[in-house]
Amino acid sequence: MRRVFPLLAASLLLLLAAASAPVAQGHNITKILAGIPEFSTFNHYLTVTHLASEINRRLTITLLAVDNSGMADLLAKHLSVLTLRNVLALHILTDYYGAKKLHQLTGGSTLASSVFQSSGHAPGTTGYINITDHRAGKVTFAAEDSGGAPPVSFVKSVKEMPYNISVLQVSTILSSPEAEAPVAAPARQQRRRQHPRHRRLQQELQLHRADRRHGHHAEDPHRHCHHHLHSHRSGPRRRLRHQQGAPAPGAVQARGGRRRPLPRPRRIQEGQARVAAHPGRPRGSPRGSGGV
User: Fold this and answer.
1) Alpha-carbon distance 71 to 79, whole Å?
2) Residues of the chain with pLDDT > 70: what percent?
3) Where is the composition biased (Low complexity) (predicted)?
4) C-beta separation of 95 from 168 below 8 A
5) Is the pTM of this model over 0.70?
6) What is the DSSP string of 104-120?
């Protein structure tokens, strides 16, 4: 009994130690920047370009944030959303750089990869950022393809969660001709209503409806255009329904557009048997009546 109590005490100590251990928590860049009005525009376009979710899903990240005035210069270029995404992705580094680490760079400079580089849209090394720690304590950032544009300067640290996320303010937007290049929209299927064949069938259908509206019930050479039009617009499933709804070979078309199905084989056999039994009785005469 005396040995049981030390074991219980040790188990309780282990549970308390596990409960008091720090738990790694995810970050939310939208909430981090929400309380800072000077980054409201930057925060908004991180959401519009879906880069906020990209930042939140990564375990280690560094964001080079730009204030509203810097974003105004970028928006004045009237870039598309896809191009704007590439420019902002250049400001997301895939490694952790806090304010202290910026001043402890080996050799005074380093080359950091960005989300723009890892996206596959940056050819060569255009998605890398050159970080330089100058002697006077000034730290600058420049894209590899800056084209001679002056680098941007480190202003201050906004938020640091060591080895998880670091939000650093920089003076302005990084210059990168490759990131600002126009981006072609992703390949999409051409709208079926704009297809030349669809337009031709639509015109034929309109002409056919106009003839019917004015009382012209002559045989229309394009009477099947409505079927082809819907099969073209709705694909194999709609075509299958049209095929299933089409009259069966040999079926009689009754009034009102309804189909009168053929008699069943058993009824056909019974009818043939009655005709054979009463060869002289006219068709349709009541049973029991004699022939002529």
Assistant:
1) 12
2) 58
3) 178-188, 243-255
4) no
5) no
6) T-GGGEEEEEBHHHHTT
20-65 pLDDT, tens digit each: 444 345 799 999 999 999 999 999 999 999 999 999 999 999 999 9
Residue 165's CB is within 10 A of a number of other CB atoms, namely 23
Domain 25-170 in this protein, CATH class: mainly beta
Reading across the β-sheet that carries 165-170, which strands appear in turn?
92-93, 61-65, 165-170, 152-161, 139-143, 128-133, 109-113
Q: Which two tokens stand for residue 234?
A: 């709705």
Is 238 in contact with 227 (CB distance < 8 Å)? no
Alpha helices (runs of H) in the chain, residue ranges in sequence order: 4-20, 29-34, 40-48, 51-57, 68-75, 81-89, 99-102, 115-118, 196-213, 225-245, 265-277
- Tell me the mean pLDDT in the region 136-145: 93
- 61-65 and 165-170 strand pairing: parallel
CB contact at 8 A, 48 and 151:
no
Q: Return the residue matching tokens 């009382």.
A: 215
Most confident of 61-70, 141-150, 244-253: 61-70
Residue ranges of the chain that CATH labels 2.30.180.10: 25-170
| Tokens 């000034």 belong to residue | 138
Question: How many helices and strands in the chain, by DSSP H and E?
Answer: 11, 9
Q: Give Cα 249 distance to the centre of its chain.
A: 46
Structure confidence by residue, pLDDT tens digits, 206-232? 776 667 666 655 444 444 444 444 444
- Mean pLDDT score, 72-93: 96
User: Under 8 Å CB-to-CB from 152, ≥6 apart: which residues?
Assistant: 64, 140, 141, 142, 170, 171, 172, 173, 174
- Is 257 a residue whose pLDDT tops 90? no
Give the pairing of strands 92-93 and 165-170. unpaired
Residue 36's nearest CA partner among 130, 154, 167 is 167
